[in-house]
Amino acid sequence: DVIAGFLYAILILVVIHPVVDLIDNFNLTYKYAPLIIIRTALEMTAVEKIDEQLASLQIAKRSTLSEEPAYLLDIDVSKPAQSESSPFVAVSCSNKSIRVYNRETLNFLREYSSCPGILSGVRFAHRCDSIVFSACSDGTVKCWDVRLATQKAVQIFSGYPSNAFSSFDINCSDLIVCAGTEKVEKDTFLVFWDARGITNCASAAKEPLGVYSESHNDDITKICFHPFETNLLLSGSTDGLVNVFDINKDNEDDALIATCNSDSSVGFIGWSGKDYKQVYCMTHDEGFCWWDIARLDTDEPITLLHVLDVRNTVCIENDSLHYLVGGLYHEKADKLFLVGGTSTGNIHLISCGPNGLSLVGTLCGGHSATVRSFCWNLTDESLLTGGEDAQLLLWKPGAVERSLTKKVSMKIASSVQKRVRVHNSSLKSRKK
Q1: DSSP β-bridge partners for residue 230
Q2: Which of 30, 125, 180, 424 could form a disulfide with 167 if both were Cys (CB 3.0 to 4.6 A apart)?
Q3: Is residue 203 helix, strand or coil?
Q4: pTM of the model
Q5: What CATH number should be reported for the domain whose range is 60-322+381-397?
C-alpha cells in the first residue's frame, strides 16, 4: 500500500499536473489540435491518392508514326483558356522540326521547320494557347501561331552575333523571353527580350533588351522562370552551377540571389515546394540535387538532398534505372516527383523526400526505346511522353488502349547525346 501510494503521488506530480498546466496555458493549441490532426490526415490521404493515380496510369492514346521518324526531345501543352481543355501539344524533334498535335486525340496537325539550326525545347505562351516558342542554335527564338498553316514565324527574337541558343523560357506573364547560349570562346550569355506583342502576332524581329554574362562560364543547358513570380529566373549550366536571379534588379551582380553547386553538368532544373521556394536539378551523370532557397538568410543548410547517382539509390524490383528525364512538383500532394527510365522504354515514377528517393510505379508496354521527354497535366493527372522510338504517348489513370503494339527502336543519332558532355570538376559555390 505504501508503494502504491508513493507511485500514485508521483503520477499526480509528474504526469497529471503538467498536462493540466499545459492545457490551461495553451488552451488555443489544445482547442485546435484535432483540426491539425485532421488536416495532417487529409494531406497524407492526398499523397496516397496521387501515388495510386500515378501507379494506375495506362496508355490512352498513341500518335501515328511520322513518315520521317525522329527522336521526340521536348514536349509542352498549351495552357487552357478559362475552363476549356488544353487543345494543343507541341513537340521538338531531332530532325529540327516542331510538330503540333491535338492534345486529346494526338492527331497530327502541322509541322514547322527550324532549319538550319538545332532546336532547344518548345514552350507555349501562358496567356495565348495558340502561340508556341522554340529557341534555335542559329541565334534566334521564334514563335508560331499554331492556328495558321503558314510556315513563317509570327515573331522572331534575334540574338547577338555568334549566339547559339541551347535553352530558353518565357515568364508567367508572357512579358520576358530569356535564352541561354552555348559557350563561344570565353563568352556565355543569358539574353533577354521584351515579349509584349506576341499575342498580336507582330512580325517584326525584336532585338535583345540586354544580357547577363558573368554568372556562368559554360553552356547554359536549362532556363526556368518561376511559376508565378514574374521576376525570378533559374538557370543551369554544364559548369555545374544552378543560379537564381531576380531580374528586376538593376544589374547582374545584384540580380544573382543564389548560386547552388551540383558538382556536375546540369541537365534539368525546376522549382518545387510550397510557394515554389525550393529548386532542384538533375545532372547529365544521373545525379540529383535539391535546395531550399528560403533558408538563404538563416543558419540552416540549404541543401535538402544530394544524390550522386540516382541509379544506385532507387530500389526497383526486377528492373533497373538507366537515366533521369526530369521532375515535377505536385501542388496537391506537396510532393516532388522525378521521371526516369530504361533503354528499353520502361518509365519509372520516383517520389522525392528529405529522407531520399523511392519508387512510386513503373509504366511498361508503351515505349520501345529511351524516353527523352514528358509533360504532366495536373488537372486530369495525365502524362505525355516522347522517346527515341518516335512515339508520342498519352497516359491516363485507368485508361484502356485499343492497340498495344510497340514500335521498333530507331537507330539514329540523337542531337542531345551529341551535345552532352559530363563536367566532372568540382566548382566552389560563390554564394550560400
Answers
A1: none
A2: 180
A3: coil
A4: 0.81
A5: 2.130.10.10
